[in-house]
């Protein structure tokens, strides 16, 4: 039986702020029971991730976002959103490309495996996506809050699971 929570941290750790999700995953390693939480480190989302979503209660996607892609945001700003059924239906799984979004992966998991985990997307607005391994100052400053946000979501999900089984 897979862990009930899947954390999918993706981005390129050799492109400065794009590697922030990998830093979060490294910080979370060993903080949770492996039987409850599984962490995947990826460069990008792909159709194969749908298979990992089977029998999960919660999937948390973590990524950096370009400030230009997030309206009215500033570098280091963290956004957390729950994927709605409507958002997932808008991204049919049959349209294959080299770019997969969390919505598209969840839609594929639903179609192929009848999986319906709660899905959350956490993004941090990045400032520097050049070659390199260092985070920009705003993203580095946001890292502790980003880690604690993921920890809180995991703990809340565990609490909800405990209440549901009692």
Written overview of the protein:
Helix content is 36%, strand content 21%. It has five helices and five strands. The chain has a five-stranded mixed sheet, covered by helices on one side. Helix 1 packs across helix 5 (137-165). The longest helix is centred in the C-terminal third of the chain and has 29 residues, at 137-165. The radius of gyration is 15 Å and the shape is globular. The model has no long low-confidence stretch (mean pLDDT 87).
- Which architecture per CATH? 3-Layer(aba) Sandwich
Number of strands: 5
Instruction: Specify the structural class.
Output: alpha/beta
| Number of discrete helical segments | 5
State the helical fraction. Answer: 25-40%
Shape: globular
**How many domain regions?**
1
Query: What is the helix/strand order?
Result: EHEHEEHHEH
Quote the CATH topology.
Rossmann fold
The average pLDDT is: 87
CATH superfamily: HybD-like
Distance between the amino and carboxyl termini: 20 Å
CATH hierarchy class name: Alpha Beta
Radius of gyration computed on alpha carbons: 15 Å
């Amino acid at each position: 039986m897979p862990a009930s929570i899947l954390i999918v941290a993706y981005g390129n750790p050799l492109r400065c702020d794009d590697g922030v999700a990998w830093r979060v995953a490294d910080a979370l390693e060993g903080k949770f029971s492996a039987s409850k939480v599984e962490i995947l480190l990826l460069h990008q989302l792909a159709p194969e991730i749908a298979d990992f979503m089977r029998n999960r209660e919660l999937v948390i996607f973590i990524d950096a976002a370009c400030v230009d892609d997030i309206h009215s945001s500033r570098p280091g700003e963290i956004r957390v959103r729950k994927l709605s059924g409507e958002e997932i239906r808008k991204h049919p799984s049959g349209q294959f490309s080299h770019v997969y979004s969390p919505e598209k992966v969840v839609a594929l998991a639903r179609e192929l495996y009848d999986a319906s985990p709660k899905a959350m997307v956490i993004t941090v607005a990045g400032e520097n996506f050049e070659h390199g391994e260092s985070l920009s100052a705003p993203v580095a400053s946001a890292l502790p809050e980003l880690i604690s946000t993921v920890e809180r979501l995991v703990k809340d999900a565990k609490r909800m699971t405990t209440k549901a089984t009692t």
